[in-house]
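Researcher: Here's the sequence for the chain we discussed earlier.
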Amino acid sequence: MSHDIRSYLAECQRRVDDCLEAMLPIGEGAQSLGQAMRHAVLGGGKRLRPALVIAACEAVGGDRSRAISGACALELVHAYSLVHDDLPAMDDDLERRGKPTVHVAFGEATAILAGDALLTLAFEALAGSMGCDPERLLMGVRELAVCAGHAGLVGGQCLDLAAAGKPCETLGELERIHLGKTAALFRAAAAVGGHLGGASPDQQASLSEYGEALGLAFQHADDILDGEHRHLGEATARRLDELLGRARELAARFGDRGEPLGGLADLVDAYARKGEAQG
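Model: Thanks. This is the structure I predict for it:
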């Protein structure tokens, strides 16, 4: 990889994990709401979305310190979405990141409340970002709200539930779901980072497009690794190359400051190749 993205990710993860540890409630008792929230967030995950917030902020000349709270906000929204997606009424998953899902460990009612609390904490975290222009911060809050709502994660989950048990017949049908879920959150991460860093309108548009392309590519790579949608294999591989190529082009617009963005595209590429080798 052209950029030492793994070291960059490790540093971002350390900074974000320290911040999340401080902001999450500790709670009392093994079955408390605070413990359920911490179970959902801490001790797992690559923190790709927070790293994208930071990389986007830095790509437009912003200081990393401006982006940390926003980076935590994206991880909290991601964690909330996983808690609710795992519920018996949704995907009914029993394990997440090598440990019991929140509803298994704490009960369904507490899991629902923990997801709600993580979502609202995300907006508290983002609104508390320091050193940012208030108008740009407001725009970042709106980006996150759109991502989390009916036009993003919630709508995408509805499409996913409607398609359950039925293979998507076309790549376009599959990407409608991915655009509402994975790609929406990646797009929001890049857009929020741009707003926190003070991006120009052109830079903001490039970052949003980059985030969406990277998010779609990441989900296609994840599908390849999991062996899903094999009937779309050749079309998916071509589309993955197209998306990663576009993400790299957009990252290059930011010169040396955009190297971490290019590194993230390389990382997703490597992730996909690992899946292809296993398949």
